[in-house]
Amino acid sequence: MELRLISPPDMFRLVAFSVLCVLLLPAVGIAQQPLAKVSYEALLERVKKQDPAVNFKELRLAYTESSGYNPYGGDREARKTMLSALKAKEFDKALESSNDILKANYLDLVAHFAALTAERELGNTDKSEYHKYVMQGLLKSISNSGDGKSMETAFVVISIDEEYALFNFMGLPVTAQTLVGDNGHHYDKMTAVDPKTDQSSTYYFNIDKPFNWLGNSLKK
Question: What is the pTM of this model?
Fold first, then answer.
C-alpha cells in the first residue's frame, strides 16, 4: 500500500472541514427537534407578571388545550351580577364577581373590563392598568388573526363570547348570526350595524376550536 503525505495546505483544509462538521452536527440535530409547547399555566404566569414579550395568541390557543377549557361554560349568574353592580356603581361588588369569573376563566374579556372599571373607580390605578393590559392583549390577538371580511380571512376565536366582546368594543350591535361550514371548517357569519351610519356589515369568525370541543364532548 502506497502512503501519500498530505501537504500543509491540504492538512489545513482537512482540519478546517473536520471542525466545521463537528460544529454543524449539533445544529442539525437541534433543528430537527420539534419545539416544545409552552403550557397555558406558564404563559399565564408571564401575563400576570406583565411580560411585554408574551404572545396572547399563543396564550389563547394554549388555553384550548388545557383541562379547564370550556368555550360554552362560564357563570352566567355571576356575570349578570357583575354587570348589574357595575351599572349601579357598586364597584366592590362588581370586583368581587369579576374575580370569581376570572378564577374559572382568566381569559374572560368582560370580566377584565369590569375589573378595569371597578379598580379605576376605586382609585386602584395600577390594578386598573393591569386589567387594561390583559384586555387589550386579548382583543389585539383576536383582531390580528384576520379582518373578518371572508371565510379565508376570518377572525379566529376560541369562544363565542370573544365574538360579542369584539363587537362590543367596536361599538357594533349584532343583528344576525348564522353557522356556516366550508372545507371542513366552521364559521359564524355575523351581521352588525354601525349606529353612526346605519350601515350593515358582514363578519366571519372561525369557530373550529369551540365547535370541535363541543363535538368531542358529545362523544364522551
Answer: 0.81
